[in-house]
Design a protein that fits this description.
Blueprint lengths: L2 E6 L5 H11 L5 E4 L2 E3 L2 H5 L12 E6 L14 E6 L2 H11 L9 H16 L6 H7 L19 H9 L3 E5 H5 L4 H7 L25 H4 L2 H17 L20 H14 L7
Parallel strand pairs: 1-4, 1-5, 2-4, 5-6
Antiparallel strand pairs: 2-3
Helix pairs in contact: 4-11
């Protein structure tokens, strides 16, 4: 009997890890995705057509945001706190922003795709801070939506870790399938590769890490270093900012990905697709 939850900031790999967990736990476990009950075929097999008011066995996933109430964690036995290098996460965050920002404007979409294709040809031609400004996002300070005051959660998280109820799991270990510490914490064997449910496929981009130094420019380093350094130090990431000597950006992880998620959203709204 256990109630397990995966927590993390947006674009930190929570969906991928949750997908592995629901395959690793016994079939009786109910699945919740960002507060929504998912009636899987396993739940139907056991005659479960709706969520119980107080289920015993749960695998849940939640994004940390302005409305998340940390007191809700009191009902969970195991809490997995996912973190990711903020430099990599920023890139994924900015690209995914196209799914819900001005996706219905043909002119804006084509301008964005042209800019991203320009960056693919010359990674130094467009700074991430300039892309951030075009998407009308606030600077990613510790207090902004990018971090949601993460530094203020450290005492709360430390208490949970001391109680052996919480485990910090890095996105980079997830990508490398380095599960030993997490397996010891949960007392189960992870099933291996995750197949994210079809309705959440758009969150998948590259499934890699350490690529930020191909995307950042010197302008970005000067802008983001001071903002991200406290997070890097807190979670044990290397505070190294050297950029790649020969930068390369794969269109599959850039303009083609953005075009795919924009068209997915436009299709939902009955709009024509962008070719």
């Amino acid at each position: 009997m256990a109630k397990v939850i995966v927590l993390g900031l947006a674009k930190s790999g929570t969906t991928g890890l949750w997908s592995v967990l629901v395959k690793s736990y016994p079939r009786r476990y109910l699945q919740f995705f960002e507060g929504q009950y998912l009636p899987s075929r396993y739940n139907k097999y056991f005659g479960q057509t709706s969520s119980e008011q107080n289920p015993r066995d749960v695998v849940s996933k939640q994004i940390i945001g302005p409305d998340f109430n940390f007191t809700d964690l009191a009902s969970f036995d195991k809490i997995i706190w996912m973190v990711r290098d903020p430099r990599d996460r920023l890139i994924s965050y900015l690209l995914y922003r196209h799914y819900d920002y001005r996706y219905d404007s043909d002119e804006f979409v084509r301008e964005q795709l042209d800019l991203l294709q320009m960056k693919e040809r010359d990674p130094n031609a467009l700074a991430m801070i300039d892309l951030e400004a075009r998407l009308l996002l606030p600077r990613p300070t510790l207090e902004s939506a990018f971090f949601w005051n993460d530094h203020q959660k450290s005492n709360f998280l430390s208490t949970l870790i001391e109680e052996e109820r919480a485990f910090i799991f890095k996105y980079e270990d997830f990508v490398n399938q380095e599960y030993s510490g997490l397996e010891n914490f949960l007392g189960i064997k992870m099933s291996g590769n995750a197949k994210v449910p079809k309705q959440f496929q758009r969150v998948i981009r590259s499934k890699t890490h350490g690529f930020w130094n191909h995307w950042f420019t010197q302008k970005d380093v000067g802008n983001y270093m001071g903002l991200f350094r406290p997070f890097l130090e807190q979670y044990g990431y290397k505070d190294e900012w050297a950029l790649a000597e020969e930068k390369k950006i794969d269109p599959e992880h850039c303009s083609r990905y953005v075009r795919t998620i924009i068209n997915e959203r436009r299709q939902l709204d009955g709009l024509h697709l962008i070719q």
